[in-house]
Amino acid sequence: MGSGAGALRFKKISQFYAMGLMSALRRVVHRSYFKLRGMKIGSGAAVHISTDVHHPSRVAIGENSTIYKHASIYPTAKGSFRMGKRSHTAPYAYFLIADNHLTLGDDVAIGPFCVFVCHSNAARSKGAIFSQNYEDGDIRIGNNVFIGAHCTFLPGTVIEDHVVVAAQSVVKGRLESHAIFGGAPARLLKRLDRE
After folding, report:
1. Per CATH, which fold does 40-191 belong to?
2. What pTM did the predictor assign?
């Protein structure tokens, strides 16, 4: 019984290390896959293999940043997605960029199920057909920004540095630095100290 227990323990330890090795190997393969497709990925950065990317050569991920599973990043050959250092998107982030530019600064944390829309249908006038009317605009997120889950960012949005956006907010326009915003539409909830 003693030798059987030892063999079982050895088998479990071997499986544990094999899983760790496979996980590390999978990360290297995923990273190489995106790099071969032209994506610029900084040192220590990770992009989950389930991330759907159109035109990877138009995407750059900064050092030690992470895009978690099931994100969608859709620039055209004219658009771009840039993520700064030490930033991350939680699972199921959606970035519809088209010919526009979406920039995330350093130290940005994006909660799950957030939507960033640089290209959207728009109601321009009475009787207009939505499918023939579009609104376009770059989206720029500054440094040290925290974004709660299920937020939506519309074309032309600019978020300055040191901002918190509460969960389930809808954001369009400029959010000033050192503040907490929330709601649909997002409005100022509280000023933050500048220190």
Report:
1. UDP N-Acetylglucosamine Acyltransferase; domain 1 (2.160.10)
2. 0.84
